[in-house]
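Our preliminary data section would be incomplete without showing what the modeling component actually yields. Below, a chain of 86 amino acids is followed by its predicted structure, encoded as tokens that our downstream tools consume directly.
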Amino acid sequence: MLPYTKNHINLEISLGEELSKALQGAKGDNKQEISDKLNSIKEKEDEDLKQFFDKFEKKKDSFINRQLKKFEKKNKNYQKLGKKGN
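Predicted structure:
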């Protein structure tokens, strides 16, 4: 996951540089059109990244929940053994 994040940050930096160059060279209506296109690309990339991290969070949460259920089950078994031993 970390390499993906680093790559995304580098992509953001290079996209920002390209945006700056494109806007400096553009004139009038063309400048707004370029800005709109780049903003729509950025919004799509942000949404893709959000979906990626949402999936990661869900996987992490389900793993933690499975581990908690295993622990609770073991804990109940230990409690039953303790009651039988008394």
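The first helix runs from residue 2 to 25. The chain is about 95% helix and 0% strand. Preliminary results of this kind motivate Aim 1 of the renewal.
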